[in-house]
Amino acid sequence: AQIGNDSYPMYKALYIDESERNKTFFLVGCQISPNHRKHASKTLRSLRLSGQQRIHLNSESDNRRKYIVNEIAKLEFDSVIVRTNFQGTNKIARQTCIRALAEFAFNQGVTHMVIELNTSIEADTKTLQHARSQWPNVSCIFSHMPPQSEPLLWLPDIVAWTFGRGQEWRRMLESKITKVFEL
Questions:
Q1: Is the whole-model pTM more than 0.85?
Q2: What is the per-residue pLDDT across 31-80, written as a single tens digit (0 to 9) for each?
Q3: What secondary structure does DSSP assign to 88-140, as a single string?
Q4: Are 84 and 58 in contact (CB under 8 A)?
Q5: Pairing of strands 141-145, 112-116
Q6: Is residue 79 a contact partner of residue 153, using CB atoms and an 8 Å limit?
Q7: Which residues pair with 144 in a beta bridge?
């Protein structure tokens, strides 16, 4: 059996980010097998332009977006999307989606959930701890990381962006989406 290095250990991980469009909240989890993490991370880093700390499709031209998405489609990963509509702020929608994605992850044997760092860290942690308390036999670590320090967090961001944009963009990565939960 292959033993992972410090950067890409052999645990079952889910990399998580969000997107929001027209009062619909999307939470995307991407799972990359340990054997493909190093290659995926290297590929993602190579797609950055000089001076970019990360890939974020909002700040790219359409031609560059298509190039990035086509390159991402060649990587080995699967995605699950949880989405819900909301009124007012997205805070409740986010926590509803976090809980649903956590329950899916626990059921799939995920042992590490890596969530893009933002201002929701306290609420996320509380929601995740509560969800884990309902699954006493689950051993899952949660961590929040800034996207510039973990390129694998760029995958769920890209999937969420393409899914939220609709038809043409969604089709480009639909083979990477294994499940969509509508809440």
A1: yes
A2: 988 889 899 999 999 999 988 888 888 888 999 999 999 999 999 999 99
A3: S-SHHHHHHHHHHHHHHHHHTT--EEEEE--TTHHHHHHHHHHHHHT-TT---
A4: no
A5: parallel
A6: no
A7: 115
